[in-house]
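Sample entry (251 residues):
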Amino acid sequence: MMSSSDSVQSRLLLHAYSDGQLDPVNALAIERRIAADPLLATEYRQIEILKQLLRERLPREELPRGFRARIEHRSEYIIASSRPGVRWPRRLLVTALVASGATWLAQGPGADDVTRDGIFAGHVRSLMAPQPVDVVSSDQHTVKPWFNGRIPESPRVVDLSRHDFPLVGGRIDVIERRPVPTLVYKHRSHLISLTAVPAPTPSPALPIRAADGYNVLRWTDDGMSYWAISDLSVPELTTFEQLFRSTAPDR
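Predicted structure, serialized as tokens:
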């Protein structure tokens, strides 16, 4: 079975291959993988269909002012904040970021949201790392204290194991140059990254939106904006949100 890291790398290679960004050796290698793997072939067809739809249904316009700079800044952010041992080919990364942006555009309008971009980048980066967390534990009383001294305030941590959403651990992500806590939960083989960002003023709930195979939702509680991202289905991710919000931390 393909691991999460392999899956992300394959998706990046597919986007790069579709855009003609691979050298001959890697292009031939991905062609052979597409021919041998029906799932990979299906995903490649979906990429091509999406590109065709964008060409047919959207008018050609000049790129917005600063678009290239934002893409390059985002790729620099991912490269700079990657864990040791993770290597991102720069041209491949920029290609994938543009492709994921096209997916956002095709599935619904949205303002440029730096926080959302950082959440997405942190989740994808964690899947490519040797492990998705910095502290590995299913015990909330181990994970919550781990953040003390590393960030200004420890996050709210709850035990959802009886609901089949066990805690995997936690890590620190950097959003807009600010270290923030991210909890990682699991449901079957799917990981959920839950990042807590300070929100001095309440923010409206963000409807679930899809980006490059991941669903993202946001809600605000007690001065914190919570962002959950996963490849879980929409109903399952909504269930996770409801459980997290309604479950009190153990004393």
